[in-house]
Amino acid sequence: MNGEAKDPVLVVLQLTGGNDYMNTVVPHGDSLYRDYRPYVSIADDEVLALDNHIGFHPNMAPIRDMYNEGKVAILHGVGYANSPRSHFRSMDIWHTCEPDTLGTEGWLGRAVREIDPNKENVVTSVSMGPSLFRALAAPGVPVATVEDLDNYGLLTDISHEQKRNRVLERYKRMYAPAMGTGPVMEFLGQTGLDALKGADILKVAPQQYSSTIEYADTSIARKLKGIAQIHTADLGTRVFYCDHGSFDTHADQMGSHATLWRDVSDAIRDFFDDLEEHEAADNVAMLIFSEFGRRVYDNGSGTDHGAGGVSFMIGNNVKGGQYGTYPSTKASDLEQGDLVPSMDFRGVYSTILEDWLGLDAVPIVEGAFEKPAFI
Questions:
Q1: Residue 84: CA atoms inside 13 Å, Cβ hemisphere, count?
Q2: Domains of the chain: residue spans and CATH
Q3: Cα 176 versus chain centre, distance
Q4: What 3-state class would DSSP assign to 302?
Q5: pLDDT score recorded for residue 155
Q6: Given phi > 0 = left and psi -120 to 50 = alpha, else beta, which region is 272?
Q7: pLDDT surpassing 90 at residue 224
């Protein structure tokens, strides 16, 4: 498979729960870092230094290696003004690009509608997990929601009607709070039928797949392996979405955050190695984001909800390096004790949409935002 001749593919990895920016990209050169964090900080001799100012968490060695290869862009201070510091509301804003009202369409749902306006391929977008991610949801846009690829479309003991109803219930719970149940049901009925068609298409992916890469037995590794199986089956999927968590580290952060980043980093390295083995890596770019960062001050064993965070873009065609600047940690520059976002997430989306997927970003993110040039 010649990656250069293939349409660009986006993989989104959502770090659900609010990943701690300061212990992911550690400002080891900042004397204030350990003043703020006497209990929840990374020791100097453990930081994977990238320069005199910042370095990665010690369990991010696979991503550090990819960074050194020029394949990782660090996007500093990503977020938006007036962060509500609420998981649900903040994630909703990231998913819909609607910071002031409750959005009804996901940004990637809109993008897929542009990519495949006639719904010629019901697996143009694939959501890996037990429920549909809001970012992919838009009326009339089919999404294949895959919890277990090995068994997807093979539920022979369940009738099509039962399966369809289960799909509809899942989608109804997702959409109803924002859209109401009445007129939505007609579109949900079609969505359920599209999902069944997607099951029939995707069930060939594991059958066609073979690889020498041995993924770890973790939930994020299983999701990324499933994405690799679908991508290498060449079924025309352009957008994949998955998550890992929970990064909501109010307590026992040093242990749990280390495990989370070990699992994520190892899975990402195996995923891209797998794609390279199949000559299927060149047209894939991965966005990693979290709904917000965490407080500058630790709370004794963890960190609480914050504002400014860090995002990453990874891929062979990503222009590696650092984009934006690390937000100031000076007490006078903090907002409610948090790092102030310095890069609007909609600008990050705009770069992906326009410079990777070849779409007009303005109607999708609802405005023009400064675009970091990582593609």
A1: 13
A2: 3-76+84-365 (3.40.720)
A3: 24
A4: coil
A5: 39
A6: alpha
A7: yes
